[in-house]
């Protein structure tokens, strides 16, 4: 048997720390690879930390509520494999000189943590223990990505830097197939991939409640008036939202056009299919219809389904349709992504929206579920709003804002009739998209929403 020392990994690009909210295991528990070890909150989302190996929990090194940085020792696991029966340390080929210098102290910590290690065993003895196979070794590199030791060994054999590979496995883990594809010249990285989804718009009118921590309560006197002040520390997620909003607003010149559409027929259709949705245990809202209409629209006007690269001054037209759906949560605005929405029917999209929104509100979304959108939708109608000016998810070039549906008199064929009117707001990057093009796209979107039978062509 060997001892696997698990250091806190980098759970996503730029994520260097996290807070262990709750351990889901205890010493003595048996775990399988990819089983959730703990719930971790970071600047991106609440995520579950998967076990990198099969084994038994030996010792939990940090309690619930502890903030840790990448490389911190957090848990040890007993694993099957060759070794000296106590503990061993694998000096990964990626280990830097500084990391190697600290390897002795790591070995000493392992020796002290191992319940089977003799009390008289010296750190030096532990450090010079017989080498173990990579699959039974300890991950000791501070900036590791999620991957099993076997996959890391395969990557080293192929002379590949595993940190350059985008993982497609559970929790974003790099698999052997990912390494092989990379070696063959493939690229799993999404072109124009954004930072995590909550970096999207939050100044779109949502009155989001964000958990905050009181720092100081004080008072100031100005002009004879005393004001009681309470200073609070912004959560990391709100800081990142603020940075992203500022970058988008001050980089891309925003223009917003506003319009409304008679969706009386769409309202009737939704009402008619509610019973079918209930039979399938699906919550059917207007969003799946809007997603399909938006996909059809940007197919016709591809300039809206694009990103802009500053360095090369190129417009990158996306031939995939990944739609971001803004979701209001008590931690901030999260935007999970409906991938390949053009290939999904209405039922599948409805299921995905409900599942992703539910997990966003409970903090269970994985970072990779909030990346890669090509154009986004933000819905202020659910909060009772109508027209607004949503902020573009830079470097995307457009975002659709959806307002509430209101019933009011309208003129139709020369007569005043009751109509169900939906408010729409389309913000776009005026460097790339002219007003006329944006209005043509809006007209196409309105036509689809007003005539839902056209959706049959998109299913």
TrEMBL record:
<dbReference type="InterPro" id="IPR011053">
    <property type="entry name" value="Single_hybrid_motif"/>
</dbReference>
<keyword id="KW-0012">Acyltransferase</keyword>
<comment type="similarity">
    <text>Belongs to the 2-oxoacid dehydrogenase family.</text>
</comment>
<dbReference type="GO" id="GO:0031405">
    <property type="term" value="F:lipoic acid binding"/>
</dbReference>
<feature type="domain" description="Lipoyl-binding">
    <location>
        <begin position="3"/>
        <end position="78"/>
    </location>
</feature>
<dbReference type="GO" id="GO:0016407">
    <property type="term" value="F:acetyltransferase activity"/>
</dbReference>
<dbReference type="Pfam" id="PF02817">
    <property type="entry name" value="E3_binding"/>
</dbReference>
<dbReference type="InterPro" id="IPR023213">
    <property type="entry name" value="CAT-like_dom_sf"/>
</dbReference>
<dbReference type="GO" id="GO:0005737">
    <property type="term" value="C:cytoplasm"/>
</dbReference>
<dbReference type="Pfam" id="PF00198">
    <property type="entry name" value="2-oxoacid_dh"/>
</dbReference>
<keyword id="KW-0450">Lipoyl</keyword>
<keyword id="KW-0808">Transferase</keyword>
<feature type="compositionally biased region" description="Low complexity">
    <location>
        <begin position="111"/>
        <end position="124"/>
    </location>
</feature>
<feature type="region of interest" description="Disordered">
    <location>
        <begin position="111"/>
        <end position="130"/>
    </location>
</feature>
<feature type="domain" description="Peripheral subunit-binding (PSBD)">
    <location>
        <begin position="146"/>
        <end position="183"/>
    </location>
</feature>
<dbReference type="InterPro" id="IPR000089">
    <property type="entry name" value="Biotin_lipoyl"/>
</dbReference>
<dbReference type="Pfam" id="PF00364">
    <property type="entry name" value="Biotin_lipoyl"/>
</dbReference>
<protein>
    <recommendedName>
        <fullName>Dihydrolipoamide acetyltransferase component of pyruvate dehydrogenase complex</fullName>
        <ecNumber>2.3.1.-</ecNumber>
    </recommendedName>
</protein>
<dbReference type="InterPro" id="IPR004167">
    <property type="entry name" value="PSBD"/>
</dbReference>
<dbReference type="InterPro" id="IPR050743">
    <property type="entry name" value="2-oxoacid_DH_E2_comp"/>
</dbReference>
<dbReference type="InterPro" id="IPR001078">
    <property type="entry name" value="2-oxoacid_DH_actylTfrase"/>
</dbReference>
<keyword id="KW-0670">Pyruvate</keyword>
<dbReference type="InterPro" id="IPR036625">
    <property type="entry name" value="E3-bd_dom_sf"/>
</dbReference>
